Amino acid sequence: MVKKKRLRLIAEMARKIRAYRELKSQPKESQKYALDYETMRRPLTGKMLPVLAWQDVRRESRLFSLLAGMRMFGVGRMFTRKSWLEDHPEPSYWQITKVKVDYTAENMDHGKAWGILTYKGKQEREVKEVEKVMYHDWRLIPKDMEQQFKDFQPLPEPPVRFVPYPPLLRAMLLAQRRKAGGRVVTEEPALPLKRDVVLNKDYFRRQEQESQRKEGTAV
What we know:
The chain is α+β, with helices and mostly antiparallel strands. It has 8 helices and 8 strands. Strands 1, 2, 3, 4, 5 and 6 form a 6-stranded antiparallel beta sheet that branches. A hairpin with a 2-residue loop joins strand 3 and strand 4. The mean pLDDT is 84.
């Protein structure tokens, strides 16, 4: 007979209380990412921001610094980043669909946001949480430019012409090249997907005629 497992209600309740206290003791977003703009240090950890980020920190804004001053906290509006504008000619932006504000923050400029990401002109289908909201490089896209971002048509991706060899065959090719050349081969072998020879009836007929000419006609 299988012995029933005893439910330790008090121990289970104590475990839940410990987990709740541990969750409550964790620093909030407003405490974790607070910044002293004079020393460029985070008060919670005492870490200093990289020197290359100081200029953006003084000139650019965080995402929630922009959302806090907007109607409905910017739901429905489009935001991009300075790094995207500088690195990619294709439009990259977030369209905000949901915002969860940390009302305990002093200026309500902390929290979490969700939206639809369009990266390099390709829009994703699922709504997901916006990443790196604490970075100082967010910019609001003006309403008169939103349609220009949306109307962009990405170029079709070029077809894949080469694929890597299987591991064993790759090792054999590298060993063969090393033996033939006598030096270390740095070029990675690739398998072409496009055939240079058209496999039609004429090709097989020529192959058959050539093999017969080499072997000779049977008597």
